[in-house]
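User: Please run a holo structure prediction.
Assistant: Happy to. Please share the sequence and the ligand.
User: Here you go; the ligand is calcium ion.
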Amino acid sequence: MPMTNKEVAAFLERVGEILEIRGENVFKARAYYSAARTIESLGEDVSKIVADGELDELPGFGEALTEKVSELVRTGQMKYYDEITADLPEGIFELLDVGDVGPKKVKLFYDKLGIGSVAELEAAARSGALAELPGMGDKSQAKILAGIEQGKEHRGRWLLSQAVPLGERIVAVVEKLEGVKRVSLGGSIRRRRETVGDIDVLVSSKRGAHVIAEFTKLDGVERVLASGDTKGSAVFSPGIQADLRVVEDKSFATALHYFTGSKEHNVRMRQLAKDRGWKLNEYGLFDGDKMLASKDEKALFAHFGMDFIEPELREDTGEIEAALKGALPDLVESRDIRGALHVHSDWSDGRVTIEELAREAVSHGFSYMTISDHSQFSHGLDEKRLGEQWKEIDRVRRIAGGIDILRSCEIDIMKDGSLDIDDETLQGLECGIASVHGSTELGAAEQTRRIIAAVSNRYVDILGHPSQRLLPDQGGMAFDVEAVLSACAARGVAVEISADPMRLDLDWRYIKTAKALGCKFAIGLDAHEKEHFGWLTYGVSMARKGWLEKGDILNTLTARQFRERLGRRRKRRKA
Ligand code: DGT
Ligand code: CA
Ligand code: CA
Ligand code: ZN
């Protein structure tokens, strides 16, 4: 498999970072960063350009760079990289993935304190040594500790999007096995956590040994860890573990509830049972020796006078109290979403033409779509090109049946909070999405000011992927989330919930707060290829984990309502 443009770009970015850590001339590092950007925004595969011998025609590609990148693309390796990393500790690279730490800080920590791994960084932060370094201080030290904690949360785990297709395939096969009554996913994958440790599957059947034997023979099994009558465990390619448990059908509801978790939710439920003089475990709900029958989870909750709690809510963040009061939200569903927001075309770094995107969106049942290509800072469109793109959008809008297409743009937020497209052009947009891509390492106060300045521009309708986290192991940037959310609420700027499985940003943990502060939301696809329209489900899952209802989310509106709503807001902001 040849390297993709994204992979090559990431590699070059890394080379630039290493050069900075080594303290080389800054122009050298910048040449690699800029090469990374160029390759990331190419319209064709870099491997093809290399094969055609045309790499040196790209801007900034001199002889040396061309040679190194060709080697990388051809062999997957770069000798130069090996040379510049040979004398650095291996752990130094994971430092770069800690939120709020970039190459300059890595260099500082390495030069002054010899820090070469996250563990050493954590120790230095806890001892107070980091705060003593030039340009640091207690606050920066605390932020780095928070970044380390955040990174730990998802490190070494699988993206939800890696687990769900496999989990669903296992369910589909097991369902058809002889003697199987009911099958369901459980655990974090059923709760739709943004990352999962392993996949849990629950089955009711009288033929446990047979079911488990078949499970361990599924396509993609690399290693069998356990294979008994009631429990099987296997590692599937590319390394994801799946646990399958078999129970009697009369225990299915309580077992499913138990194995769905979360642990915290389970602890609360068990206590509720105790309070009533009952006992709850995976085998059943018991009053003394008597089992209180629960044909399904709904019946189980009903014993407690509770409404059914959707799995996404089972995180012990108030769902138990709400269920007891009959006050659970009526959660948004995928079919409520009518607009495909935040779609990139081949006018920037997307792979597909606007016309093809329109067809794809229709086939997914969307009735409108925003074409939101990058602006110039992210090697996308400048004012002139946007104007040209609008003509193409008009053309496709006329020929594409049944779908409305909105002029949009993912506008870069500059370091000072200004936008990289002039207001006159922004005025022509029908949906402005402002996002941070660079300068994620500013201090929290400056970062907060920067984002608030950006959402204060009257042509910004949506704040894109607010935290910049990259799952599974890169935490978000440091900023005052609540201050930014309040600013969005006050200005009527919707907060994006990115459906991109590596982002899923705004983090669902902040959604309830955001709603309480008065925010509206937009589920953005951040699609760059046709397949990415399928990401919608992950964005909706996060909205559900944040307790959102249909009315909280702008792209549940019809195209007309959506246009009216953005238009009204702009008029108000102008006044
Ligand atoms: P993961 O796999 O790390 O993404 O997270 P989960 O939630 O899937 O955890 P896992 O696979 O270890 O266990 C599945 C469920 O089983 C878990 O959500 C709740 C239940 N469970 C497991 N261990 C315990 C426990 O010690 N106490 C309680 N109350 N429940 C447990
Ligand atoms: Ca699990
Ligand atoms: Ca498990
Ligand atoms: Zn973006």
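The mean pLDDT is 95.
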